Structure formats: structure tokens, C-alpha cells
Amino acid sequence: MEPAYNGYAHFHQGLDIANNLYTPIVAADGGTVVFAGWNNFGFGNAVAIDHGNGLVTWYCHMVQQPAVWVGEHVSQGQFLGPMGSTGASTGSHTHFAVMKDGVWVDPLRYLQ
């Protein structure tokens, strides 16, 4: 159970990568930004990148507004924003999540 959800179980559809506040968050791969800003469903300040072929990655809980905007093409390794703890979060981390054809999938399958 996670404290951010008041002890209730929930499906955790991503990978939490903890580090210090303001640690740079970078794009896992190139693509087009399809979301950048505040997410009302627990992600806080977040970015979503469409990589094509039905693959979208999410980078969540940034301490401030993202450094990229919707429609911008980003490159692999490009700075997206600083790590934080916004939204449903209890400490500085990045929630990294992957959607394939609109379905949450295990992000470890896409990381090398």
C-alpha cells in the first residue's frame, strides 16, 4: 500500500525512479510532446511523448512546469524538466510510465 493513496491498493502502471529534487529528467527517446503541464489525476507536472507506432512515454511529478511544450519535437536525452514531488507523490522521484496502443505496459520492456 502506498501512503499517497491513503492505504488503498491501486494499480501502479509505471516505474518510480527516486533521486534528489531538481535532478534533470530527460526523454528516453525522440518524439513529439503530446502533453506538458499539470495533470489532475495524480501525475502533477508531467510530460507525455508520442514516439510513433502507438508508443507514448510519461514523465511525472516534476517540481515545476515542464521545459517543453505540446507539439514540440524532442530528441533522446533532451531535458524535459526537473524532478520533484507534485501530484500524488510523497517524495522526490520521476514516475516513468509507458503506454502501447493506449494500454499501460511494463516500462522495463522498453529500457536498455
Automatic annotation (TrEMBL):
Domain M23ase beta-sheet core: 11-107
InterPro entries named among the record's database cross-references: Cell_wall_metabolism_enzyme, Dup_hybrid_motif, M23ase_b-sheet_dom
Pfam families (UniProt xref): Peptidase_M23
Domain of life where this protein originates: Bacteria
Gene Ontology molecular-function annotations: metalloendopeptidase activity
Listed CDD domains: M23_peptidase
Designated name of the protein: Peptidase M23
Organism: Nitrolancea hollandica Lb
